[in-house]
Specification:
By secondary structure, the protein is α+β, with helices and mostly antiparallel strands. The protein is built from eight helices and eleven strands. The protein has a five-stranded antiparallel sheet, covered by helices on one side. Strands 6-8-9 form a three-stranded antiparallel sheet. A three-stranded antiparallel sheet has the order 7-10-11. The protein is globular. Pfam families: Pkinase (PF00069).
Length: about 260
């Protein structure tokens, strides 16, 4: 008996039993709305093809192939312990030993997919998963891959979006800056210190969206001077980096220097 254990904008996540190490991600279907159903199926087809292109990598959530349930083709994925967003909402603390490593792992994930010709286009804490305390990237239904002719025509959410409609490496790099900021502060850009706000409260909140657009649009960014990787985060937001791999190198150097 499959049990619904997670909700997303394009589908639900189901597990067969609590002891299973995999889950099945299935697209939502609305009776009588063929156009909507076809749109969601397209996202799942893109995700399947991108996962196949990416293959196995320690920074990507493991994918085990398609499976059909109730006449819907879903995706069998590794069962994560939690999402980064759940960490921000429930368990984040300033003294965690994982923050620096997770920053590097997030950057390595983005560097890897760019190396393979994929732009994620929807980087946010919900789409980074924690498995055995390792941060891995998932949810490629909004991705772009020119080699495969894939374009989900998706752009990141407020707080992770550079306000430019074209999709390039900088789309993901800007969002990565906000991911790093969230890991190190415990909250999204332009949220208050110590605020643990559920994504459904923030991403769909018009006031938050207006604050973010007004600030990012006028070149105003959250204060990062006190953060160990603050200069790197600001560089992601301001277009200093053209390569996610350069961010990996910069983070490792910064964290090694602070440890020494």
């Amino acid at each position: 008996m499959w049990t619904l254990v997670g909700l997303g904008s394009t589908g639900g996540v189901y597990e067969l039993d609590s002891n299973s190490n995999t889950v099945l991600k299935l697209p939502w279907q609305i009776d009588g709305d063929e156009a909507w159903n076809a749109k969601l199926l397209k996202h799942f087809e893109i995700e399947h093809k991108v996962y196949r292109l990416l293959g196995e990598n320690e920074h990507i959530l493991p994918y085990f192939g398609p499976e059909i349930l109730e006449k819907r083709q879903g995706l069998v994925l590794a069962k994560a312990d939690r999402s980064l967003q759940e960490v921000l909402d429930k368990t984040w603390n300033a003294t965690s030993d994982f923050h620096k490593r997770w920053c590097v792992e997030a950057a390595k994930a983005v560097a890897y997919i760019h190396e393979r010709g994929v732009y994620h286009c929807d980087l946010r804490p919900d789409n980074f998963l924690v498995l055995n305390n390792v941060l891995q990237l998932g949810d490629f239904g909004g991705a772009v891959c020119l080699e495969l002719g894939l374009d989900a025509k998706k752009l990141p959410d407020d707080g992770f979006f550079n306000l430019k409609p074209e999709v390039t490496a900088h789309t993901d790099i800007f969002a990565l800056g906000s991911i790093l900021y969230s890991i190190l502060t415990g909250h999204w850009p332009f949220c208050g210190t110590g605020e643990h706000v559920l994504r459904t409260d923030v991403a769909h909140d018009e006031e938050y969206g207006k604050i973010v657009k007004d600030n990012f649009g006028s070149g105003k960014y959250p204060e990062v001077a006190t953060l160990e990787a603050g200069g790197i985060i600001l560089g992601c937001w301001t277009g200093q980096y053209d390569s996610a791999q350069d961010i990996v190198v910069a983070l490792e150097r910064a964290f090694n220097e602070s440890a020494g």
